[in-house]
Design a protein that fits this description.
The chain has about 600 residues and is of the alpha+beta class. The chain is about 50% helix and about 10% strand.
Length: about 600
């Protein structure tokens, strides 16, 4: 090919028709430099980075982490281990489907051939197959299996393996799990409510909610539903109390409640049901809606959103024009909190999954890519970068698993108050998202120019991860929420005590009082001292943090991650775990700098 290209582009026009060997030989002799260009030494092929055949078995921390948590609580995990090993072997198949979802994004057909409005959203077959796999693998249903001990760990680890290669199907799964949790809590309130005292809890209401829960948690792809959550409107998405303009009106003739308004940003518009906030009889209330299978005018899709990333995900702007709705709760904000806690946990798990995936790809690439006479994994500077990726991805995994345990804590963890789960939910979401995006940007550098090329698939991972600091509350909004929560009662003391207890080994992940003894390790004394000193500085920073709220929130997240790393290293006594804890305390703890408010005002005054 190269010889033909060279000859045909250097022959004179009257020689192009001649294909004789003598002419070729003559032209080659007149251009001796050609031999230099044809040398095989310059025909170099770089092996692309690949995920392993089984991303669970080959992971350096996940199998040991699962084993540690189950053994600490004396729970048999053979079934869980087998399931995770089987699921880890599907990574290559999932990644292929995810790439097809990226290549064939959803489309919107507004009109049919006769000019009639149909608002049809079409998604590729791979998107549908990923939904089927998620249902069969019980990625949502596992979390609802009340007969399974430590189901939150099982579910979280499966999600860690799935998200980065799941083509953004994790987004509708998060909202589906959140909706199932919210509906289940409301259904339990119905059971506890005395007859005749709750006006909205009728038998018909109970049947509708129970049916929705059974579909949202189904492991049968034929009956599995996904859910949306429609809160964001044109006026904003975080301050929903002030921004919500959608109204609910009860029809006097048939008693049906119908919704009217605009929902500016609705993800996974191909879902079957959705939770919606709307104003009703003076309250901001929570509703359940069923999306019509055919266009009937009650929902109009104005457009599909053109986003930086998550292009596989059909996200739309909607106009609601009389959409029938079921009233779930008159106080919408208070009753949607369970859903937000679930989706924030999914956000943290997604951050850990994306960073872990890039870390594994970078490590594989470093084994085959050569520079300066060595493979990259032999060069000291590159080894330092790989060590940072490994450490930071481990920190996010441990932090997200700990949050899952805290949110599902039971009576065996009396040291955990509701203050801890409320604060850690927001803190972990902010911290994992920020760390994942910033570290993934550095991780792409380890691939050189290939990390910037769209056809390698690497930039797509980074673009998809960029939604994590925004979704379910921006960093500033959640930082303000964190500060408000810390000011209530003993919240600050409870959270800092929990972090210290983890670091000192008074409890293990999730606040569980481990009956055994955690080993001592001299090499962990330094990171433990650094963390203790950092927590003291953090406590002082909390006293005046109106303008440094984000720093304080990230600081709490970094301290929480450090405590989980130290706790895990105490248990395993593995040199790599000890080294990860030491490296995190040197690189991962956020500097706590005070800011002069005068500087802020002056720099914005011009």
């Amino acid at each position: 090919y190269f010889q033909h290209y060279y000859l045909t582009n250097n022959l004179r026009s009257n020689e192009l028709l001649c294909t004789g060997k003598d002419v070729q030989r003559q032209r080659m002799n007149r251009f001796p430099v050609k031999k230099f260009f044809l040398s095989h030494r310059y025909l170099h092929y770089v092996s692309p980075p690949k995920v392993s055949e089984n991303t669970y078995i080959t992971d350096t921390i996940l199998p040991r982490l699962v084993g540690a948590i189950y053994k600490q609580r004396n729970v048999c995990f053979d079934k869980v281990q087998t399931d995770l090993e089987i699921f880890g072997s599907q990574s290559m198949q999932l990644e292929k489907l995810a790439k097809e979802c990226e290549e064939y994004p959803p489309t919107l057909q507004r009109l049919d051939g006769w000019g009639g409005r149909i608002d049809k959203v079409s998604t590729c077959e791979s998107w549908k197959k990923l939904h089927e796999i998620a249902s069969r693998e019980k990625l949502v249903a596992i979390g609802r299996s009340h007969d399974q001990d430590l189901r939150e760990v099982w579910q979280s680890v499966k999600l860690l393996l799935f998200v980065a290669v799941g083509g953004m199907v994790s987004c509708p799964l998060a909202m589906t799990d959140g909706a199932a949790t919210t509906l289940s809590k409301l259904l339990s309130l119905h059971r506890d409510c005395a007859p005749g005292t709750c006006s909205i809890f009728s038998e018909e209401w109970k049947q509708s909610v129970s049916t929705a829960i059974s579909h949202l948690t189904s492991s049968d792809p034929q009956t599995f539903w996904t859910s949306g959550q429609w809160m964001t409107e044109r006026a904003g998405g975080s301050d929903v109390t002030a921004a919500t303009q959608t109204v609910a009106v009860r029809n006097e003739e048939d008693g049906v409640i119908r919704l009217y308004g605009n929902k500016f940003y609705t993800s996974a518009i191909d879902c079957q049901v959705s939770l919606v906030l709307a104003r009703f009889e003076g309250n901001l209330s929570l509703f359940l809606v069923h999306l019509p299978k055919e266009y009937d005018g009650t929902i109009q899709i104005e457009k599909l959103k053109n986003k930086l990333g998550t292009k596989q995900l059909p996200t739309a702007e909607l106009t609601l024009n009389g959409l029938p709705a079921l009233l779930l709760a008159e106080r919408g904000i208070a009753n949607i909190i369970p859903m937000l806690q679930v989706t924030r946990l999914y956000n943290a798990i997604s951050a850990a999954s994306y960073l872990r995936h890039v870390t594994m790809l970078a490590q594989d690439y470093a084994k085959s890519r050569t520079a300066f006479g060595h493979t990259l994994n032999k060069l000291p500077l590159h080894r330092a970068s790989l060590a940072k990726l490994e450490t930071f991805s481990r920190a996010l995994i441990l932090q997200s698993i700990d949050l899952a345990l805290v949110l599902n804590c039971k009576e065996e963890t009396p040291s955990l108050s509701s203050n801890v789960s409320r604060v850690l939910s927001a803190v972990t979401k902010v911290h994992t998202a920020q760390v994942a995006v910033n570290t993934m940007r550095e991780g792409l550098e380890s691939f050189g120019g290939a990390g910037y090329m769209e056809d390698t698939g690497l930039p797509g991972l980074f673009r998809d991860a960029c939604v994590l600091p925004v979704w379910e509350g921006t960093s500033d909004v959640l930082s303000a929420e964190t500060l408000r929560a810390l000011m209530r009662g003993s919240s600050t003391k409870d959270v800092l005590r929990y972090i210290r207890d983890l670091a000192t080994g008074k409890c293990v992940l999730g606040g569980y009082q481990y009956s055994g003894e955690l080993g001592t390790c001299d090499q962990l004394e330094t990171p433990m001292y650094e963390l203790d000193r950092y927590l003291t500085d953090l406590e002082a920073a909390l006293k005046d943090c109106q303008y440094t709220g984000r720093t304080v929130t990230l600081g709490l997240g970094a301290a929480h991650a450090a405590a989980t790393l130290i706790n895990f290293a105490h248990y395993t006594q593995d040199p790599s775990d000890v080294a990860a804890a030491r490296l995190w305390c040197k690189q991962g703890l956020v500097p706590l700098h005070s800011i002069d408010t005068t500087d802020i005002n002056d720099v914005l005054s011009s």
